[in-house]
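Hi everyone, sorry if this is the wrong subforum. Our group has a chain we'd like a structural model of before ordering constructs, and none of us has done structure prediction before. Sequence below.
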Amino acid sequence: MQNRITALFGIRYPIIQGGMIWNSGWELASAVSNHGGLGLIGSGSMYPHILEEHIQKCKKATQKPFGVNLPLIYPQVNDHIDIIIKEGIKIVFSSAGNPAKWTPLFKEHGIKVVHVVANTKFAIKSEESGVDAIVAEGFEAGGHNGREETTTMCLVPLVKKVTTLPLIAAGGIGSGRAMAAAMALGADGVQVGSRFAASKESSGHTRFKERIIESKDGDTMLTLKELIPVRLLHNGFFEKVQQAYTRGASKEELQELLGRGRAKKGMFEGDLEEGELEIGQISALFDSIDSVEDIMKSFVSEYNTAISELQSTTL
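Answer:
Right subforum, don't worry. Here is the predicted structure as tokens:
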């Protein structure tokens, strides 16, 4: 397939792997790129020297384009940006902040910039800031999410209506059929997180991956809106959060309960009770931990089948 997204990034398929904290290291990013998509290193869980190491390893593992996901609220974002520029990264997916602050600098260095949004207001601001494409991430997505709770099926056409930029759909995209649906809504490509979190190449802990594929519908919920909204699998920590809400806990009490290192404890270290287990609603669809190669093949096959079925059906 050739379209605006494949042309923008120089990739075969308009499939972008989400830059998930504690899951999206160089092994996952390089594997996705090697199999025709766009791999992203998730810098949000990396100290600057670790990000530099992952970039250098990814360069050795693939000759294909790859990028870095950069949460703009990261405490050492300046150091990350210096490394991105020094290492010659040409694609940055930014999130959780104002793209207008850094996009001009990236553009000066020939870096393509894509910003992640959860509403039309920030889609418009992103285009005004000069980004090259937009990710519209719906309420179904795992990890940190928008407060509006707008689903992907509603958000994609809404954003499509207010921007002329290439548009990438995210949230609930766990199969080739979901990809076909997103493209039918007006997206030029898709960003896939949860499915790749449950891949063999993901840097997430094996116990976390197993919990993902054991999950059922209704096993995740968006919570902690007073801090930064995050979608979590139900576990011991999640229940403590719910109990805190029941007793009317303040924002400060919720922050104290969250503490530091919860996401690392859950996703990277495999503490399934006391850690944050960030994953999307679509995780209920998965029943195996597969290689990136098999996931990409499945996406392409399912997409083509879905498109063929739709073309043979007329009203």
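For your construct planning: Residues 206-282 form one domain. The chain has a mean pLDDT of 95.
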